Amino acid sequence: MTKFIRTPDSAFSALDDFPFAPHYHQWHDLRMHYIDDGPADGPVMLMLHGMPTWSYLYRHMIPPLVEAGYRCIATDHLGFGRSDKPTDPHWYTIARHTEVLTSLIIKLDLRNITLVCQDWGGPTGLAQAAMMPERFERLTIMNTWLHHDGYEYSEGIQNWNENWHEGGLYCREQPNVGTVPVFYGGLMDQEQMDKAMEENNEPDLSGEAKRMYRAYSAPHRGLDDAAFNGLRRFPLSIPFENYNGGNGAAQSSHYKTLLDWKKPTHFIWGCADPVFIEDWGRIWASRMNAATFDPISKAGHFLQDTHGQEIVELLLGRISQE
Description:
The chain is of the alpha/beta class.
């Protein structure tokens, strides 16, 4: 039996900007949470998050996509959001996250899929398109990557990795990860984030910043430190440091496979992101077959938080031109 921690439903009861009913997929003895909103027979938008977020990241995008006729599936990786949180840090590998997502797609028999991926949603989601291309209609790639020979990891991602090691800002018991999307969204400054992380308390925020902080803190608030191990393993699974844990060989294979992708590919990129920088996004798009590239100049790493409506408009516009 897998040892895990399950966040109580009460932790999510105050999220007044996330009105979506929970659904659960059973994977062995663990349950994975996902949102399933919109017409059951509609074309699918499969929306995947990264670190340290969860399906809440897509709260601004789901309603207009549903209105446009899409069935929106937004998942929580195991260890995140409403999904169960295995306590053994060695449980978490990118290969396992990928396998769990594959099982959900097959269980729901998802087809006519538009992939919408960002951060670790890229390696886990693009793997599905590489392995099951017949289920996918198009790719939407936002601020992510696939490891491959010659990929240059930015200073931003190297610093992110370093800060999860001993002596780093996030290497502590029950790290205050709710501050991270708020900071990268430009709604709090570095001094505020550092103080909140070091003191491990709720920062003095208001309005949207406060709502975001509480929502991104909700999945782990009050839980034992072992519940945070899924969060810890993502930054420690980047293939430049942890090739096997990061599924580096498979990522490289999927990258090569998708360079020959013949269906539509749309890049929508937050150009103020210090982690996956604009130059990389443009290079990647130029290597794909007839891919489009839409820059959002003021958007950072978590562009769904800050520019969700604009992303939807750009994506629907590109689909209408296919």
